[in-house]
Every structure is written in C-alpha cells, then in structure tokens.
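Repro:
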Amino acid sequence: MSKKSIIIFLISIIALVAALYHVYLVFHPYTPFYRYKISILDLTQVIRATAVFFILFVGYLNDFIKESGVVRYGRLRKTISYVAEALIIWFTLILIQSIITRRSEDPWQTPVILIIAMLILSTAPLLPQRFNKIAVYSNIIIALLNILPWIYLVVYYEDLIYRGTNPLNIDLAMGWIITLSLLTYVLRHIGPEMPLLVMLFIFYDVYGYMFPGLWRHPGFSPDFLIGKIYIETEAALWGVITNVAVKYIVYFFLLAGLFSTLGFGEFMAKTFLSLLGNKPVNVGRVAVGMGIGMGMISGSGAADTAFISATLKDLFRKAGYDDLTAAGLCANAGTLAIITPPILGSVAFIMVELLHIPYIWVIIMATPLAVLYALSILFYNEFLMRRIRASISLDILREKYYKFHVFLPAIFILIMVLLGYSIQLSVALAMIFTIVLATLDKDMRRNLRKIHEGFIRGYLDFTSIGASIVAANVIMSMVVVSGLHLKFSLTVLNLVQHNLALAIMFATAFSILLGMGVPPIATFVLSSVLVAPVIEQLAIGTGIPETAARLATYMFLFYMAMLADVTPPVALSAYAAGGIFGTNPITTGVKAALVALPKYIYAPAMVYSYLGTGLIILPVILTSSLSDALIIIISRYIEVLLGIFFISSAVGGYLFRRYNIVERIVLTFAGIALIIPGVYSDIIGLLIGSPVVANYFKMRKDVNKNKI
C-alpha cells in the first residue's frame, strides 16, 4: 500500500468517526454513557466546538489528499481575497500588540508564535500557482494546529467561561487560531466574500469611534472581540447558527450521502424518465422532478444541481437544448432543494432557531413557494421547447424502472416531524429506513457494502457548508456586538420614508446584491438582522397582524436568500452546472437568473399586504377565520399562477407562435400586475394581458379550422 493510500484510508476513518459522532449524539441520551456527563457528548458549547473541529480537521485533510492549495478565482475575486487577507493581517498585528502590551513577558512567547504561524499558513491559498505544493502541505499543518484550540476548550471550558471578559494570552491565541483557520477554509471553498464581511464587521467593532453620527460607538478591544468569538458559552463560533449545522444540516448531508451511494438518486431519475417518455420537452421536466425528489432528501442546491446535470447532460444535448440553457435549467432545478420540504436548506433551520417556531410551520409556508418555483421552471421549459419545436424521439432507457419506494425516506421524515419527533431523530431513523429499503431492493442490495462510503461522502460534502454556517454565526455576532443592526434599521426607515413598498424593494435589492457575493445562509443572516425589523414594523403599520407580518417577512427573506444560489457572480448552483456542461460560470449564472424569471417577483409581493401573505398559507390561517383564509389563499393563487404564465410565455417568446417584442413587453407588465396583490392591479393585468393571449388562441383555432 502506497503512502498516499494510507493517508486516504486514515482520512476516511476520521471522516467516518466524525459522521458517526453526530449519529451517536442522537441516541446518546438513551445509552448508559449519558449518566457520566461527558463534555463532548453533553455540554452544548463543547459539542458545537467538537463539531467545528471535525469540520476543519477533516476538511483540511481532505484538501491535502485532493492536492487543493492555491485559489483559482478570477481577477476580481482574487482582489477581494487579497483585501480580506490584508484585513486579517492588520487585525492579527493589533491582537499581537495587545498581547505584548498586556504582559511584560518576552514578546516571543508561545501565544504570539502560534498566532504568527497560523497567520503565515492562512496566506497559503493566495500564493502564486507555482507554490501550489507548499499550499497543499500547509493543509496538514493547519489541520494539526486545529487540535490545539479544541483540546484547550474541552479541558478548560469552565475556566474560560469565568474569564470571558479578561482572557489570558493563550486564550486569545487559541481563539484567533481557529478563527483564522475557519476564514481560510471558507475563502478557499466558498469564496472570499464571507471572510471579507467577517473582517469588515470586526473592524467596525474595533474602530467604531472613527465613524460619524449615528454610526459612532466607543469601539472594542481585540481581547474583548476574541472573547465574543471563542470564549463565551454562546460565542460567535459556538452560537445558535452554528447549532443549525450541528443539530440539523449534518444529518441531511449524511442521509444524502447514503441516498446517493445506495443508488436511490439514480433510480429516482430512471423512474421519472420511465414515467414521462421520450419527448424532448420531458428532459427539462425530469430535471424539475429530480430537483423536487432529491430536494426532499438533500437540502443542498449545489450538490443536487451537480447530480441532475451529470445525470441528464447527454439527454439535454440529444433533445436539442444548448448547453447554456440546459445548465441554467439544472441550476434552478437543483436550487429547489433549498425550499423543498421536508428537508429544507440551512436557512429554514435558522428561521426555526431565530423565531422559535415549530419546524412544521416552515414546511407549510415553504411548500407553496416550492410549487410556484417548480412551475416557473416548467413553464419556461414548455415555452422554450415550443419555440425550438424539437420533435425528435429520444432513446432514454432500454429498460423501464418504476421504483416509487425511493421517495419513502422523505415521506417517513415528514410523518415523524408531524408526529412531533425531533429533526435529528427523524433523519437518523430515516437513515436506518433507507438501508432497510436498499436491502429489500435487488438492484440496490449490492451497494450495501458501500454504506460506510455514504457516511464518508456525506460528511466530506458537509464540511464546506458547515464552515460557511459557522462563519455566518461570526458575522451575526459581530453585527450585534456593536448594535449595527439597530443603526442600520433606523437608517433604512429614514431612507424609505416609512413606505412599505419602498422597504420591500430595498430588501429585495439588498438580498440580491448580497446573494451576488455570499451564499444563501450569509445572505439570510445579514438580511434578517439588518432588514427584517424594518419590513416587519412597516408591515404591521399597514394593518397586517403581527404574527402574519413576522412570518411573511422572514419567509420573504428566506426565499430571496435561496436565490443567491442562482444569482451571479457567486451562484454556487450555476457554478456546479457550468462545471459539468462546460459553460462559463458567470454566463451560466446570468442564464440561471433569467430561467423562471417570475421567481424574483412573487416572493416580495407576499409581504406587501395581508392578501399577499395568503401565498404562504399559514399567516392567514393563523389570523383569520377558515372561510376568509380559504378565499384569500385561492384567489391569491389564481392571480399568481396567471402572472407566472404571462411572464413565462413572454420570456419564452412563444405561445402557439412567436410573440413580437411589443407583445412580450405587454405580457410581462400584465404578469407583474397580477402578481402584485390588489384588486386594481389584478384588473389592469387582466385587461392588458388577456387580449394578447386570447388573440393567439383565436389564431390557433383558425389554423386548426383551415387544416380541417
């Protein structure tokens, strides 16, 4: 066995241990070990710290095996990386200065040496390409260095709590080592935007006294901020958002790993293909079906996009789709995972933690949005293929497969949640159920020997998302420390002049702009902290009941954060699709944004008025009589579906024949008017849109008569 094979084996063992650690946590309260109160199994702070340690330790070791070293971003993102690194170096220097000032010891003490070593290693991803080998080997050292702050916290967690406001030098060193490690990993795997945001908020906390007027605050010392990041019980690294990764997300990745390894995803695709037949338009339909099917298990937009793209790439080409359009369709279909129940993306669980609401509430509100998103993609696909007029027949499958039991694990989770069981227990039992189903299926039974590979694969896929969730917790903590969220809310209120419509437009633009640089979780965290209070307050001021306003506001921001996965230039789902189809990631992101264009319109409309909240059902159910709620919900859906139909046909440029440019513009405005809640806007939308569509129906009827 070669040296590399031995290292791969060891890393696989460590990743498997990390996965099984999380699985064991679910059943730990029912085991004899529970009575011993072991810190890494029973104490919230230490459990979260252990989870973060595993994310970084396994992640860096995996980077070493993959020989991942320097980042290969374009010029703009490389520049952002350099700016983020410059701020990291700056803060590190003032932290070292603080350490030296606080003690009269020799400046070359252990804490300073450790910090400098970690700082040097953190620059490795930004080295020129020719230094890739150095950067690769730095992964091993960073992984080993991460052992220190974890062991330190496990051993001294009680002492750390008591000296949170007056930390020792070694406390500061341990805190900044793991923070640097986290930022470096996120920079390499997610992008430089999140590390830059972390550092900008840290610097605002340090130098707040330099800002004018409302934005001014006394400023905080580096020692104080490290205490907030590493030492406190609910410190930024171990806070409520990190708990989302530990308590929810990791289990879905493990289940998705099993799902893929045992062959459930493959047979799900074959089942859809068998059902729909050989028409070219069915390839796009299958992509949406797979997005929903895999989304019921995965919750990761980029991962599902990669699977759908790889599975259907050849079929898309045979059906007459160009690669760019196919990639855009797959990116949107994969992104459905973030909002498809019962397993939603990480944002949904942050909502649960922030609002203290039952998870089933989020499922109820997300379901109609998932349906509308799926319909928007399907409408685009239908009108596109009508315009292409592809009539070829595809040889899709030599053998038909109808394995409907591949959907049972998702249904099992939903039933467990409805019965009141925890998400952790529901998903852990779903893993066992999935294995049982594979055992009973002769085509999947041969994959049972790969169960361990499913856990390993699932955990390795989780590391980058897990790291981004922890980084989002640091961002939120740094915002709250300085009271920036309150100042920002006051500024926005003045900017929009207490006008709800303007506030919604601002929040939409804010979310989209954030989504251009950071993934959905960071987009949601920042928008929920900075913008949500304004929207909620103004919505209540217009007469929307408080509960309805609160739920609609956060679901609106959740949905807009989801679109970060298909909004360039970051657009993780677009990158995944572009990588498989061989298209430019930025161009793919632009195409993905244009596919299912109504997706950017109906979510902002749902918080515009009480009628608008009917789109997500629960707000009106909770605050109206059942009869009134049903009237609002049904009428709202008719309006929005008509609006989506109008806009999709305008974007596709075709109904029964090609639209001209004027007709496309008219239909677009008609669709927008219908989606905006209100009697007058509905009348306007119908008056200007219906004649265009009716004319095409008449033309089709005349053509059919002539044929007869």
